[in-house]
């Protein structure tokens, strides 16, 4: 199940990143409904891939690797995109320094072409917090209890909004993101039991029914993690999870086809697409006029091509993807006598 297992995850990522791009394509319905699940999906998948750590020494090493993997591309793409913005609007040292401050601060300070950057820092914090909970506490009941309390606190925080100043790195979103991440981790053991046709039919029907009900009732349900818009205690977990299970089953079915390798490869480039889809559309919009379909195609395919190119250059791969090229070892076979 190994290779196929990861293949469907990459396909789910591909569906998720297409939803992210569509959600930013200035289309009311696409924006409203993709926000129900796209970011929770990435947190769930990230939790699904989490491997428990054995001790604090291993934890420290793991944090360092995760920081490089997430923050180096964050800084590289952020600096380049801000340079693009400055050159377009008229470069000044003062405004560029303000941009760099916003990049370091992150969270709600990231707006416009860099608005989605909040996810990377929030994901890193969520991963670290969950790893600490998993490492410090042995009882699963205590771990799950902490996650539930965090989820409840997230809704109290969102309702009262006690802090007017934006929280650095969107650390406040971690309170709710932790529940999606933890769900991904804990469901891993049972995914083979629940990822079936019966579950798909139920989740797909529930999704359709809920969309119809929401549409007929003037979009009564909204969720947007970055600005702390989550006001439905039950639905803010159930709706993303139900939709994600629908996507997971579809992904598993697509993974059975050999041609799905292209879709799964797009999934592996999801972070690059996340960073670049708005800026490439901003660039091409000066030359062409197009709607949400064009926005989505350009926003997915252009960064995907860039991803393929930078993977071929070790230094670029390190800067833009946060991954070092694997060392190649030569094996010398001894001739038999």
From TrEMBL:
<feature type="transmembrane region" description="Helical">
    <location>
        <begin position="233"/>
        <end position="250"/>
    </location>
</feature>
<feature type="transmembrane region" description="Helical">
    <location>
        <begin position="166"/>
        <end position="187"/>
    </location>
</feature>
<keyword id="KW-0812">Transmembrane</keyword>
<feature type="transmembrane region" description="Helical">
    <location>
        <begin position="144"/>
        <end position="160"/>
    </location>
</feature>
<feature type="transmembrane region" description="Helical">
    <location>
        <begin position="262"/>
        <end position="281"/>
    </location>
</feature>
<feature type="domain" description="Acyltransferase 3">
    <location>
        <begin position="7"/>
        <end position="308"/>
    </location>
</feature>
<keyword id="KW-0012">Acyltransferase</keyword>
<feature type="transmembrane region" description="Helical">
    <location>
        <begin position="71"/>
        <end position="96"/>
    </location>
</feature>
<keyword id="KW-1133">Transmembrane helix</keyword>
<keyword id="KW-0808">Transferase</keyword>
<comment type="similarity">
    <text>Belongs to the acyltransferase 3 family.</text>
</comment>
<feature type="transmembrane region" description="Helical">
    <location>
        <begin position="33"/>
        <end position="50"/>
    </location>
</feature>
<dbReference type="InterPro" id="IPR002656">
    <property type="entry name" value="Acyl_transf_3_dom"/>
</dbReference>
<feature type="transmembrane region" description="Helical">
    <location>
        <begin position="194"/>
        <end position="213"/>
    </location>
</feature>
<feature type="transmembrane region" description="Helical">
    <location>
        <begin position="287"/>
        <end position="310"/>
    </location>
</feature>
<feature type="transmembrane region" description="Helical">
    <location>
        <begin position="116"/>
        <end position="137"/>
    </location>
</feature>
<dbReference type="Pfam" id="PF01757">
    <property type="entry name" value="Acyl_transf_3"/>
</dbReference>
<keyword id="KW-0472">Membrane</keyword>
<dbReference type="GO" id="GO:0016746">
    <property type="term" value="F:acyltransferase activity"/>
</dbReference>
<dbReference type="InterPro" id="IPR052734">
    <property type="entry name" value="Nod_factor_acetyltransferase"/>
</dbReference>
<protein>
    <submittedName>
        <fullName>Acyltransferase family protein</fullName>
    </submittedName>
</protein>
